[in-house]
């Protein structure tokens, strides 16, 4: 059911719950994407009580999924973002890439849909700026991240970079994020190892539980500055409007001919 590129980026536990949640069966028994879709999807949580060792640490370290499908969810009429083309866009399946998004204390996944132009047959992802720029603010404000080539960054992290000043640098934000990520990962590991410890004496060596997965590293301060640059570019028109407004106020305050 899931694209092969998704399977390569997801653990077996994530493949199972995403496939079971997003897909159903049609009358012929073939997998079909559900019609009732939401933006945020949360994985199954660890059980309160375990009567046997956990099969894998997956439920303890699973992350949520953000599903961005503006055409399929809201039935919006979108036009082709290619220059000199005014064709309408139609759904064309799932986008082949699933992204990992940096959050304050962890990571989450982001997926989107493929949109195809009826006229020029070009395909674009639903999270491209040419598509998001067409959305009304009611919906565009729900997009939570800034996208880069491989990884992506949540807007809450980017907001910490917008108020950079003396002592509030990208390096300091990097250290703060690494501290939050480590603390969150340690809590999950303690929970998982604590559950496994209950069955340690009754299990043979061959049936012992797998160790916790390694913590995904936090991207470098240089990458954080790159994300900040992407964010500035997307809000360039807003900055221009602010500058025009500021200088307009100054011109009105001083009415001399020299100005």
From TrEMBL:
<dbReference type="InterPro" id="IPR046616">
    <property type="entry name" value="DUF6729"/>
</dbReference>
<dbReference type="Pfam" id="PF20499">
    <property type="entry name" value="DUF6729"/>
</dbReference>
<feature type="domain" description="DUF6729">
    <location>
        <begin position="6"/>
        <end position="232"/>
    </location>
</feature>
<protein>
    <recommendedName>
        <fullName>DUF6729 domain-containing protein</fullName>
    </recommendedName>
</protein>
């Amino acid at each position: 059911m899931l694209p092969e590129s998704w399977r390569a980026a997801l653990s077996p536990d994530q493949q199972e719950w995403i496939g079971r949640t997003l897909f159903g069966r049609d009358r012929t028994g073939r997998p079909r994407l559900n019609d009732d879709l939401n933006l945020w999807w949360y994985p199954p949580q660890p059980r309160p009580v375990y009567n046997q060792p956990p099969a894998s640490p997956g439920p303890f370290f699973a992350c949520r999924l953000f599903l961005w499908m503006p055409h399929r969810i809201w039935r919006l009429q979108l036009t082709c973002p290619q220059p000199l083309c005014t064709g309408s866009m139609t759904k064309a399946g799932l986008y082949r890439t699933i992204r990992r998004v940096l959050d304050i204390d962890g990571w989450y996944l982001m997926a989107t849909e493929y949109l195809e132009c009826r006229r020029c047959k070009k395909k674009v992802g639903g999270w491209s700026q040419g598509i998001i720029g067409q959305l009304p603010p009611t919906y565009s404000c729900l997009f939570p991240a800034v996208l880069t080539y491989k990884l992506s960054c949540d807007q809450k992290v980017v907001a910490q970079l917008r108020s950079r000043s003396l002592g509030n640098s990208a390096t300091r934000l990097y250290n703060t994020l690494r501290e939050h990520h480590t603390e969150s990962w340690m809590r999950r590991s303690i929970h998982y190892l604590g559950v496994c410890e209950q069955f340690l004496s009754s299990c043979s060596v061959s049936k012992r539980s797998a160790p916790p997965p390694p913590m995904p590293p936090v991207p470098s301060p240089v990458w954080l500055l790159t994300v900040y640059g992407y964010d500035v570019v997307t809000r360039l028109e807003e900055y221009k409007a602010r500058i025009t407004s500021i200088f307009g106020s100054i011109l009105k305050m001083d009415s001399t001919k020299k100005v």
